[in-house]
Each structure stands twice: as C-alpha cells, then as structure tokens.
C-alpha cells in the first residue's frame, strides 16, 4: 500500500529562503502531498499555514532544534500547532548529549518532558536519528535506550534510514522493529565506496572538528539512485504502520540541483506506485 509522500524543505533550503511560497508551489507540482519544515524563514505561523492551505500541501511535521524547544516549549508547540503540524521532531543532538556522553541521561529526561508538553497541543514528538545513536551503552544502542526509557505516548520514531544503514543496521529490518511506533519515516539514499569520510557531518552542514583535506567517499543521492534497497524499504514502511514518508537529501549530487534532486526522488517513488 502506497503512503503519502512529503519532502523535508531543508532539502531545498536555498530556494525556500529566497521564496518559500514559490518553493512550496514547485514541491506541489512535483507530486508531493506534504512538507516537513526546518525553520520558518522569519515568516509567521499564520502566513505559513495560509501558504500550505492555499497550495494544497499538508504541513506534516517540523524539525525544531532541541534548545529552541527547551527555551519555550509552549510557544514552540503552539506555533507549529497553528500551522497544522501533527508532528515535531528533535532533529539532531550535540556531542555532549549523545549516548555515553555526560548529558545523555539528562537529554532523555528533557525529551520526555517535551513530548508531554507537545501532546497538550495535539503534536506528537519524534526523534530523528543520525548514526551516532548507534553507539552502544552497556550493550544497547543509545537509540534503543531512548525509545525504551521514554513512553511511546510521548515519543515516536522518525527513523532516517540512510543513517540507520550508516550506523550498521539493515534499514528495513530496523524499521520493522519499531512497528507501531514509526508514523513518519525519512527516506534517504546514498552512495559510498570504501570507508566513511572522517568528517561525515560536514556533508550536512555541521562542523564538529577541524577539517582535513581528504577525498570524500560518501554522497547523498536522490531516492532510488543510491545503494539503499528501496523496494524493500517501502514495503517495510507499510509493514511498520507508517502514516507518511519524507524525502530528504542533505546535499545534492550527480550534477543535479537541490530542486532537481527532490524531483528525481519523487519521480522514482511514482515509478514504484507511490
């Protein structure tokens, strides 16, 4: 069974920054049914809601920096509820908050509190993983510990299946492990040869250490154009009970623009009946 397809607006952030309305219209014309935001570009929630309503896109969810949520959770969730988002995701955590680091347990408690607050506004909190959550603490993945310690009532998954693969797990199988707790799934493809580059997060715009000159062996690809077993992943999305899939491509490749990249992803999914 095909699921509705959204796109993470971060994938075309240059266009969205320049003209969000025009960008959303192009996204709709490509055949996407929804969008996931990563910031509002200084625009008001009412204005963004009006854009989505007028263009006919579902505002599925939003990636909101953890510190922004913690600074004023009620205002944050009220704003995104006004837009119509049913989900809000913790998109990334800094090194001191990761599995095995000094603030990991504190971060889990904070996420639980945010999930409880989000629920008051009709929003379900999600956690969007990278690969560092596959660090083990006492023999368990940090990601599994997070989902074990926070009730499903207050936290659901947003598994990014590229990072699941990079983290060392088979994406479709790992997604099925969270059947019933996986309402939104990130579809992301990639190509890699040899070892992962040491500075992998530079590819998503995050500098965590001083750069060295080295050839990259990793690139993000449009969905269906990389190494992921997409037919099996799409089947797993329906098996796991997902409500939405979200296309995300952090950086373009293959000589394509950001906009052409998400178009190629949508065309591939359409070829699979999605």
Task: Describe the model.
The structure is a single chain. With 274 residues, this protein is an alpha/beta fold. It has a single domain, classed as Alpha-Beta Barrel (TIM Barrel), CATH 3.20.20.150. Helices cover 39% and strands 17% of the residues. The chain contains eleven helices and twelve strands. α3 packs parallel to α5. The model has no long low-confidence stretch (mean pLDDT 94).
- Share of helix among residues? 25-40%
CATH superfamily: Divalent-metal-dependent TIM barrel enzymes
Query: What is the CATH topology descriptor?
Result: TIM Barrel
Strand content: 15-25%
Overall strand count: 12
Gross morphology is globular
Q: What about the largest sheet?
A: 8 strands, parallel
**CATH-derived architecture:** Alpha-Beta Barrel
What top-tier CATH class fits best? Alpha Beta
Structural class: alpha/beta
In total, the number of domains comes to 1
């Amino acid at each position: 069974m095909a699921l509705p397809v959204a796109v993470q607006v971060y994938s075309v952030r240059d266009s969205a920054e320049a003209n969000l309305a025009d960008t959303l219209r192009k996204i709709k014309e490509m055949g996407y049914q929804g969008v996931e935001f990563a910031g509002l570009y200084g625009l008001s929630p009412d204005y963004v809601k009006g854009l989505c309503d007028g263009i006919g896109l579902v505002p599925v969810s939003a990636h909101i920096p953890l510190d922004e949520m913690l600074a004023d959770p009620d205002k944050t969730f009220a704003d995104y509820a006004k837009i119509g988002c049913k989900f809000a995701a913790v998109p990334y955590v800094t090194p001191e908050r990761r599995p095995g680091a000094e603030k990991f347990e504190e971060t889990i408690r904070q996420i639980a509190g945010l999930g409880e607050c989000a629920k008051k506004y009709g929003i379900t909190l999600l956690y969007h993983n990278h690969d560092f959550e596959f660090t083990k603490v006492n023999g368990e993945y940090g990601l599994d510990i997070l989902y074990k310690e926070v009730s499903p009532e207050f936290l659901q998954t947003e598994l990014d299946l590229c990072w699941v693969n990079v983290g060392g797990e088979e994406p479709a199988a790992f997604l099925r492990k969270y059947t019933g707790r996986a309402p939104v799934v990130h579809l992301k493809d990639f190509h890699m040869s040899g070892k992962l580059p040491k500075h992998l997060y530079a590819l998503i715009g995050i500098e965590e250490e001083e750069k060295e000159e080295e050839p990259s062996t990793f690139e993000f690809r449009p969905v269906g154009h990389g190494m992921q077993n997409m037919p099996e992943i799409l089947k797993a999305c329906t098996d796991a009970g997902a409500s939405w899939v979200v296309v995300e491509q952090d950086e373009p490749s293959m000589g394509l623009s950001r906009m052409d990249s998400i178009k190629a992803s949508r065309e591939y999914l359409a070829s699979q009946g999605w």
